[in-house]
């Protein structure tokens, strides 16, 4: 009977130890499960964090693009408003085109007539060239394939050519009746101040008399000065003083 108690005690201890071991295994298993679950949760958290960071970066990028587009749209709005104003101005100008064209054509015709009268009263240098220029302007005015702006430009160009004659010196060759005989002569034009000539053989010289409206013969003493002037005009001689008679037009 005395041997039974230790046996029972050992059995009880073994049973208790086995139960504790089972509970420990259970705790360890649960702890492992918890760790695994925590690891999965952390992975999910990391994935969510990465996703949120990526979306945040995209959000910041989009905000920058929106700011840029806002500035760009504001600039475009200004440009569009300016273009609208310009179109309105162009439309208003187009409405006046026909009116302006009706006014500019008579003006050009009057300018050509005035230029023709001026040439007729002027010193008679380069008569053929100046007459052809006037004739060209008259024919130009009749053409429908030339714009009014081009016609006006050509008229102003003709006026400019005539103005330039007044401040230049020129030498040219042409035919002129001398003592009842048509002869080839060298003309010397000094602005509009004087128009002189000398025959090719140097035997006769003359100048335009504005009062008499004809060429008058000059003494032979003027021939050398006229020849000198011709050489200056042709750039064969440096500019120098000339002693010549003057018959200026009023």
UniProtKB/TrEMBL annotation:
Keywords: Plasmid, Signal. This is DUF3450 domain-containing protein. Residues 1-21 form the signal peptide. The keyword Signal applies. It holds the Pfam family DUF3450. InterPro entries: UCP028069.
């Amino acid at each position: 009977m005395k041997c039974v108690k230790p046996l029972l005690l050992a059995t009880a201890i073994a049973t208790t130890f086995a139960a504790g071991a089972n509970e420990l295994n259970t705790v360890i298993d649960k702890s492992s499960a918890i760790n695994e679950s925590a690891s999965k949760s952390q992975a999910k958290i990391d994935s969510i964090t990465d996703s949120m960071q990526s979306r945040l970066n995209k959000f910041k990028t989009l905000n920058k693009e929106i700011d840029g587009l806002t500035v760009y749209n504001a600039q475009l709005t200004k440009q569009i408003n300016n273009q609208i104003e310009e179109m309105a101005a162009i439309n208003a100008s187009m409405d006046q085109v026909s009116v302006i064209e009706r006014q500019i054509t008579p003006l050009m015709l009057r300018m050509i007539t005035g230029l023709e009268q001026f040439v007729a009263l002027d010193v008679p240098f380069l008569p053929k060239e100046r007459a052809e220029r006037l004739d060209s302007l008259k024919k130009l005015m009749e053409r429908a394939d030339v714009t009014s702006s081009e016609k006006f430009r050509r008229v102003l160009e003709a006026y400019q050519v005539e103005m330039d004659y007044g401040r230049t010196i020129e030498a040219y060759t042409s035919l002129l009746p001398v003592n009842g005989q048509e002869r080839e002569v060298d003309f010397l034009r000094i602005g509009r101040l004087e128009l002189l000539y000398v025959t090719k053989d140097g035997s006769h010289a003359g100048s335009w008399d504005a009062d008499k409206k004809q060429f008058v013969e000059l003494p032979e003493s003027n021939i050398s000065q006229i020849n000198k002037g011709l050489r200056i005009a042709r750039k064969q001689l440096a500019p120098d003083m000339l002693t010549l008679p003057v018959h200026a037009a009023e």
